[in-house]
Amino acid sequence: MIKVLTTARSQALDRHTVRSGHNSEVDLMRNAGRAIAIETGRLLRADTRRPVLVVCGKGHNGGDGVAAAGFLSAWGYSCTVALLGTLADMDEVVSEIYREAGIEVRENTLPDDVGWVDHGLVIDAILGIGTTQPLREPVDSWVQAINEYQGLVLAVDVPSGLGTDNGKVYSDAVQADVTVTMGYPKLGLLINSGPDYSGQVVTADIGFDSTYFDEDERGIAQFISDDFRKLYRLPLRQTFKHRQGKTLVIAGSLGMTGAAVLAARATILSGSGLTVAACPASIQHLYVPAMPEVITLSLEDHGQGMFLPEHVSAIRESLAWCTGVVLGPGLSRSPQVKEFVRDIFEHLDAPTLLDADGLTPFNQGVDMLSAAEVPLVITPHAQEFAQLFDHDLEEVMSDPVRVLSEVQAYFPHTVVLKGAPTLTLRATGEIVVNSTGNPGMATAGSGDVLSGIIGTLLSQGYGADEAAIMGVWLHGQAGDMARGRFGIPGMSSLHILEQVPQAFDVLKGGS
How far is CA 250 from CA 246, 290, 341, 497, in A? Predict the structure, then answer.
């Protein structure tokens, strides 16, 4: 796991490092400059004949740029340093770095004063972290000029103009090819418009004191595959189907049997030893040919093609048998189905994944969900989240981390907020940013596959947080594999489903 920081936590980490004596502010800035210079050399393939333009603001982000220019000049690169202000504007730390660098700086430079075509790379060291409002002059003109430049652009810490905490672009932002971020990735690089503006994100170790995270501040975590290999438990050689998880899938209705099929098949392809799919009797014939590995529990529905409140008693025996439940995909939103969901929820004894139409009966009234005593994972997309927790949809989409943090105060279960990227709120309050997935996964049925994967992990005894985080990563990994085979435009949920076993193979260390 690596930490992902907000503006406040980045600044607190910096203060902690200096206060502990681990490194001084000058040390940190010097180390940042070296990391930027190394990445610049890599991008230019060590061709010192290609001049570098470093555009520096007056703050510490600009100081990082000055430090980088000092290293590059010492290594034989021709550097032009354009300062948006004067040397007198610099604080003591940046001034010391400037004296160390031993370079010339152009003060109060304007974009028109620069010969853009003469440079092989531009370093954006204007603003860095902390942007919360539209750009003002002269920054706005510089950002526009950098974006009109045809060569390589490297941003320092965060592209100027990009919101550090939310990935918003308030008016304009630098479009970088590479962003060198200091110590730990910043949240805004990973969500909303962040990935579109930051390009390749390179995390540079500049000497922060990691004991900061031993105190109260845990940051926001992003899981990576190596962590999953430690969590994932390979089946024992002498195992058998009852030990591999017994999953009950309650899903589907007339016209939406595909959701049930995708979820149920995803449980099998994720390793569920036994899966039972409850289904309305009038549409059972649509299930069986599509999922021969799954046992169906037929429930008389009088030709209505949906679950009814009277089905609860018939399902209770399966509830006692299973070790994990998937409830919701494709159920429909009829009043009878909503009553059925609320009734069945009261009888849950096994860890449960609640998705889609399984969530709508609890809209703006999550007390019943909050009071659940079984391990619970809910997987809403932004609109479902907004309806469930009575939030504004635009607010959920633009600032998902903040709204998740608010929900954590009164909702003690695991929340998977599906999106790009998907965010998981752990019951501990930590938010995990997923690192897999691609736009081709924005297709009907993709979420049903995710439900099946998480449902299986729950049935196999993983905790709700573990099952959710691992399931989201595996789902995205399967999507990335599907993209490799079919491309983004033609991807379907079936393509993702087909790659689920291969995603698990990566998880357990396969090729």
Answer: 13, 16, 10, 19
pLDDT tens for 411-455 read 999 999 999 999 999 988 899 999 999 999 999 999 999 999 999
CA distance 182 to 36: 10
CA atoms within 13 A on the CB side of 448: 27
Question: Quick one: 215 and 244 in the same domain?
Answer: no
The label of the residue with tokens 């539209």 reads: 134
Beta strands in 157-283 (DSSP E): 178-182, 200-204, 220-222, 246-250, 274-280
Is the pTM value of this prediction over 0.70?
yes
Is 71 in the same domain as 123?
Answer: yes
Question: Cβ(4)–Cβ(13) under 8 Å?
Answer: no
Q: pLDDT tens, 21-79?
A: 999 999 999 999 999 999 999 999 999 999 999 999 999 999 999 999 999 999 999 99
Last residue of a domain, one of 220, 241, 260: 220
Residue with tokens 């009164």: 410
